[in-house]
Design a protein that fits this description.
The complex is a heterodimer of chains A (about 325) and B (about 375).
Chain A: E1 12-22, E2 30-35, E3 56-59, H1 72-76, E4 82-84, E5 91-93, E6 113-116, E7 118-121, H2 122-130, H3 133-139, E8 142-146, H4 154-166, E9 170-175, H5 181-187, E10 193-197, H6 203-210, H7 215-227, E11 232-239, H8 247-257, E12 263-270, H9 276-281, H10 296-309
Parallel strand pairs in A: 2-8, 8-9, 9-10, 10-11, 11-12
Antiparallel strand pairs in A: 1-2, 1-7, 3-6, 4-5
Chain B: E1 3-8, H1 16-29, E2 33-37, H2 42-45, E3 55-58, E4 85-88, E5 94-97, H3 100-109, E6 114-119, H4 121-132, E7 138-141, H5 157-178, E8 181-186, H6 193-201, E9 206-208, H7 216-228, E10 234-239, H8 282-295, E11 299-303, H9 315-333, E12 339-344, E13 347-352, H10 353-356, H11 368-375
Parallel strand pairs in B: 1-2, 1-6, 6-7, 7-12, 8-10, 8-11, 9-10
Antiparallel strand pairs in B: 2-3, 4-5, 12-13
Helix pairs in contact in B: 1-9, 5-6, 6-11, 7-8
Classes of the chains: A alpha/beta (about 325), B alpha/beta (about 375).
């Protein structure tokens, strides 16, 4: 499977980032480990650097000290992908030629050229995560695996979560469930809280906005709710104006999750243009330029529907 | 050489059919067969999508009168890069796959000896990579912004220019009757050719281009002079990549884009990593609001944007397109490959792709057009 680099052999994985003191990725204060690789291509993705499973080159022009003082990358690139322009001395990257070989990275002293993603062992990750353990005890937090799609690197994710449990650390994952069931079977036994997306209701609309229809996702969700009754599930919808910020989607999602008592909440994540600048670092096009975050009024209206369904008077938990 | 193929890159540009016609007619004269690949390389990468097949046999009879019309008989691909083809795998997971080897094999299997792609500056890089992998190719440059390096004129530019001029005249008339300052944004992410040449053609009051960071105070002074002389309206042309001089205030979040972005990929490496063009219309909006503040005259922003990419080709683009198509066939007949046809007056030349990539043809400070604009009293914001 070309998309799952860490599914065979020793449990090493490609880690994008370890973010400390997260407060929105599960209960309490958490350390979020972003695993690289995703199986969807949501047009609103706020983590474009997490999409490709392999490490990929990024470039911050602001840090480049220019060809007059440096210029090693120009000689190192075998693909002619780094070049100069007339207007200044800083180099540019031609992303259509770049193959992400990474040869330019070690010869860039100011680290203007760098790689998103690095291979790590389970212990390397957990040793860093465990540094925050005192905060977990105080807040009821723990480790959260995010992505990309953290279940894509199923063996690595399972080893990380099992290792966290062994160290007494609470576990959570953020997932969209667009993976084979065999991945779910490996990962979920080691998870305490499952934060999962329900992005769109209709299969064809799901395909249009994320790249695949949601048939398998819904099958996986139902199966997971039933196969893991002791796990806590929290459904979430990234709320994208004009795409899924309608009552119909919210009510359809509630209808889908409510029969399952282990789905304890449904949160709305208002679309923000957080990831936009990162597309620039990767030479990618952000396709949602003309979308604005949802209005407070529409957010409040939709949240009220959820509060009512969960028997809350309003202002309930919104993960 | 017996069988060649032609295809079109990502965008419709007036004159595509002219290039195709030029290629087919010139190839026919040599006794060669020409097939068109539908929708970029999709016709060969996804033949199952096309009930009649991904290739279209092109004959002089089929293309009769085609060069005079708009449209593109072969269709376009919205950026199918054979090195990163997005597809859903057997596990229902989306992934990007390098299918360049398969593409080249498919080309060989179809007994296609060479490909003539009609492409803009971005796709030139992709063709360069394919050529390095063994594809025999002669590229034809297209760009409504005229920013392909080493050619004086990309086809499509003249049609865009003509339409922009027509629209600017209309805006001027509207501005005159409304007694306002019209601020019109035109395409030009890295290069200001379209804004500058259109602005000259209509004798605009000011033209702001990516190559010259602007000081709106100077533009405002110019407009105020004219206002005091009794003219209540104005016309300002802004390239979408125009930006204010360092440290100058812009309007709120509408930060003007960074013109120094000369990478060839979309949204690439501007200062701070932001997109160069945050969204269509922002440059016009920022300039219009600030000019209104500086001049106390009402302004209104308009965006021509991709409108100029539509419609039929002008006489210049028809000739150029036919010439480029025929020139590409001549290059193949001369056993050339890995080159781009370039108009370097008075000749059509064949330039190695390595010289055409990693460059953007921008307006030099010494350009004759800059001198003409200054002579006409057009403010350039510096």
């Amino acid at each position: 499977m070309a998309n799952s680099p860490a599914n065979t052999g020793a449990p090493k994985g490609i880690v994008l980032n370890i973010q400390h003191f997260s407060t929105h990725d599960g209960p309490g204060m958490r350390t979020t480990v972003f695993l690289k690789g995703c199986t969807l291509r949501c047009k609103w993705c706020s983590n474009p650097e997490s999409i490709q499973p392999k490490p990929e080159l990024a470039y911050n022009l602001r840090k480049c000290i220019g060809k007059d003082q440096c210029g090693f990358c120009l000689k190192e690139c075998p693909e002619f992908a780094i070049f100069n322009v007339d207007s200044d001395t800083k180099v540019r990257v031609n992303w259509d030629l770049c193959t992400n070989c990474g040869k330019c990275v070690p010869v860039c002293p100011p680290q203007a050229l760098y790689l998103f993603g690095q291979e790590m062992t389970v212990d390397q990750v957990l040793d860093e995560v465990e540094q925050d353990s005192s905060f977990y005890r105080e807040s009821g937090g723990g480790i959260t695996l995010s992505g990309g799609e953290c279940q894509l690197q199923a063996d690595f994710a399972a080893a990380l979560l099992a290792g966290a449990h062994q160290r007494g650390i609470n576990t959570a994952i953020e997932t969209a469930f667009n993976v084979p069931w065999s991945h779910v079977e490996k990962v979920l036994p080691h998870v305490d809280t499952v934060l999962h997306d329900i992005k769109l209701t209709l299969p064809e609309r799901h395909r249009k906005w994320t790249g695949v229809d949601n048939t398998r996702i819904r099958e996986n969700l139902k199966r997971a709710y039933e196969a893991f009754p002791d796990k806590t599930f929290i459904a979430r919808t990234p709320l994208i104006p004009g795409v899924n910020d309608d009552e119909e989607h919210i009510r359809a999602t509630l209808e889908f999750i409510k029969p399952h008592k282990n789905v304890v909440d449904y949160g709305l994540l208002p679309y923000m243009r957080f990831g936009e600048s990162k597309y620039g670092f990767l030479g990618k096009v952000y396709e949602m330029q003309d979308f604005e975050p949802p209005s407070p009024e529409s957010l409040a209206r939709l949240r009220a529907i959820i509060d009512e369904a969960f028997g809350r008077s309003g202002g309930g938990t919104q993960t | 050489m017996k069988r060649i193929a032609i295809n079109c890159g990502g965008n419709y540009v007036p004159g595509l059919n002219a290039v195709i016609t030029g290629t087919v007619l010139a190839a026919h004269e040599l006794g060669w067969e020409v097939v068109g690949i539908r929708d970029g390389f999709d016709g060969l990468l996804f033949p199952e999508r096309y009930p009649g097949g991904g290739l279209l046999t092109l004959t002089p009879q089929l293309l009769e009168n085609c060069s005079a019309s708009g449209g593109a008989i072969l269709g376009n691909a919205t950026r199918t890069d054979p090195f990163r083809v997005r597809q859903v795998n057997t596990e229902n997971m989306v992934e990007e796959v390098d299918r360049s080897g398969e593409l080249i094999a498919n080309i060989a299997a179809e007994k296609i000896d060479a490909v003539i792609p009609i492409v803009g500056p971005q796709a030139l890089s992709i063709l360069f990579r394919l050529h390095r992998q063994g594809l025999r190719t002669v590229c034809v440059p297209t760009s409504v912004e005229n920013d392909v390096a080493v050619t004086q004129l990309s086809f499509g530019f003249n049609s865009a220019l003509s339409f922009a001029v027509e629209m600017l005249e209309r805006v001027r008339q509207a501005a005159q009757s409304a007694q306002k300052i019209g601020v019109v944004e035109v395409l030009g992410e890295h290069a200001g050719w379209l804004a500058l040449q259109a602005g000259i053609a209509v004798c605009a009051d000011a033209v702001l281009i990516p190559e010259i960071p602007y000081d709106l105070q100077k533009v405002a002074s110019r407009l105020q002079e004219k206002h005091q002389a009794g003219r209540a309206s104005g016309l300002v042309v802004v390239a979408e990549g125009a930006m204010p001089r360092d440290g100058q205030e812009t309007i709120g979040e509408a930060v003007a884009p960074d013109s120094l972005k000369a990478s060839l990929s979309p949204g690439a490496t501007g200062e701070g990593g932001s997109h160069v063009i945050e969204r269509s219309g922002r440059a016009a909006q920022a300039v219009a609001r600030q000019l209104q503040r500086l001049t106390d005259q009402a302004t209104y922003p308009l965006v021509l944007g991709p409108l100029v990419k539509g419609g039929p080709p002008t006489a210049v683009d028809r000739q150029l397109g036919l010439g480029y198509g025929a020139g590409a066939v001549r290059a193949l007949d001369e056993d050339r490959s890995g080159v781009m046809v370039a108009f370097q007056p008075p000749d059509l030349k064949f330039v190695p792709l390595a010289e055409a990539i990693n460059q953007v043809r921008t307006v030099p400070a010494s350009s004759l057009f800059i001198q003409i604009a200054r002579s006409l009293g057009i403010a350039l914001g510096n």
